[in-house]
């Protein structure tokens, strides 16, 4: 009996995901984009202790381990780096971080310059991460959506794009995140950050797309948030010149 | 001597404003938009007491005075409304709210569907308001930028556009606010709210453009924030259909 109940639950979940996928596809349909359903990947259970460590080392004038900007190394693939996920102690070279993320953290990798990231279960308590890798224009990018309580009792959503490469390589690209629902539209456009910088510091600086819970709810549909993502090569370094 | 010092100060202020105006114009130059320097208009010194009054009346099931949606009145100009500014006890009809804002609060009115709002002195402590009226497409709109501490000790900036008209009239328009600086771009697009709804409730709901202080600083230049504003008539009610 329990087996049948579980099977029925699984079928219902599949129908629900399929329905969400269909709805997100309808919203972003004109662009014919790939829709990727992203479940929360990461409980950040050691977040507080790593935060404290980063804080302490910064106060002592020591760079935290993820700040190996290392442009002096000639082959960017051999720059040492840490895993961008908060609670993971892994360290290695840039060339193997993608396989580490896929194998250890089971993070999906998607192809295409324009995709739709559909984050499910937005109601889950902070801290929670939704992460995918995105392969386009000859590089791999990491999209991180994080629910975090920067101000106690007030969770916010932070979304940023990191290049799995050096800061110099990152400067060649521009990414755009777009939310569109309920007669409201929000677009954020910036240069991706290098994975050699901390995701955590990008988020704590607030230099990314930031959503209060109320706005995230307005853009959500049935507990899922669809974010349109586009990556292009930067033609000019100053986007002001484009306006 | 004091007179000369004051004169010199005034000339320096003028040069500074002119320089900011020139810089904002350069950023938004391609569109040939009108740049309007907006000084803080409003100290909100009675904010706490009015907040408390609104809170109390809502808890007692009484609508606060600014919630006269009043679509039953046939001539929209005769709908009763209150002054949208926080500390002002004025009440009157929609048809005279523009002259009240101009005469009592000295709020500028600008012409044109696309303008640049250049808010000065962003460093001033919360609560602070920057307000202009904007006349286009046969209607008057009110742009409110407010610095407010929704979470104690963490001021945020909230920007919204209100139509000086009824909610039904407001549904015919779409407004866009755009920030563009330091290789970052943020766009917010929505239907304006009617001035018959509280500006305060729009801001407390967070259903507007919200900036944390760190992001506001990234978009600011020398303490001033340039916001590109565009108003259009809504062709379709659901903006999802446009994508």
TrEMBL record, chains A, B:
InterPro entries: 7-in-absentia-prot_TRAF-dom, SINA-like_animal, TRAF-like. Pathway: Protein modification; protein ubiquitination. It catalyses: S-ubiquitinyl-[E2 ubiquitin-conjugating enzyme]-L-cysteine + [acceptor protein]-L-lysine = [E2 ubiquitin-conjugating enzyme]-L-cysteine + N(6)-ubiquitinyl-[acceptor protein]-L-lysine. Pfam families: Sina_TRAF (PF03145). GO terms for cellular component: cytoplasm. Keywords: Metal-binding, Ubl conjugation pathway, Zinc, Zinc-finger. Signal peptide: none annotated. GO terms for biological process: proteasome-mediated ubiquitin-dependent protein catabolic process; protein ubiquitination. Its EC number is 2.3.2.27. It comes from the Eukaryota. The keyword Zinc-finger applies. Residues 135-229 form the Seven-in-absentia protein TRAF-like domain. One of its GO terms (molecular function) is ubiquitin conjugating enzyme binding. The SBD domain (substrate-binding domain) mediates the interaction with substrate proteins. It is related to the TRAF family. Belongs to the SINA (Seven in absentia) family. E3 ubiquitin-protein ligase that mediates ubiquitination and subsequent proteasomal degradation of target proteins. E3 ubiquitin ligases accept ubiquitin from an E2 ubiquitin-conjugating enzyme in the form of a thioester and then directly transfers the ubiquitin to targeted substrates. This is E3 ubiquitin-protein ligase.
């Amino acid at each position: 009996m329990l087996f049948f109940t579980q099977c029925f639950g699984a079928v219902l979940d599949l129908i629900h995901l399929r329905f969400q996928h269909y709805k997100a596809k309808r919203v972003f349909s004109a662009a014919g984009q790939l829709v990727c359903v992203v479940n929360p990947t990461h409980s950040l259970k050691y977040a507080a202790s790593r935060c404290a460590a980063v804080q302490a080392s910064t106060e002592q004038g020591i760079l935290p381990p993820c700040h190996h900007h290392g442009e002096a190394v000639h082959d960017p693939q051999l720059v040492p780096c840490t895993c961008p996920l908060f609670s993971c102690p892994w360290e290695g070279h840039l060339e193997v971080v993608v396989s580490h993320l896929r194998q250890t953290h089971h993070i999906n990798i998607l192809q295409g310059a324009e995709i739709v990231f559909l984050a499910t279960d937005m109601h889950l308590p902070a801290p929670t991460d939704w992460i995918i890798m995105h392969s386009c224009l000859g590089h791999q990018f990491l999209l991180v959506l994080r629910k975090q309580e920067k101000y106690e009792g007030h969770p916010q959503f932070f979304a940023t794009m990191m290049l799995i490469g050096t800061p110099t390589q990152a400067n060649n690209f521009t990414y755009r995140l777009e939310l569109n629902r309920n007669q409201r539209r929000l677009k954020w456009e910036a240069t991706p950050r290098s994975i050699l910088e901390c995701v955590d510091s990008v988020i704590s600086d607030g230099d990314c797309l930031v959503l209060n819970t109320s706005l995230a709810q307005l853009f959500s549909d049935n507990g899922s948030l669809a974010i349109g993502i586009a990556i292009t090569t930067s033609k000019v370094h100053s986007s002001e010149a484009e306006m």
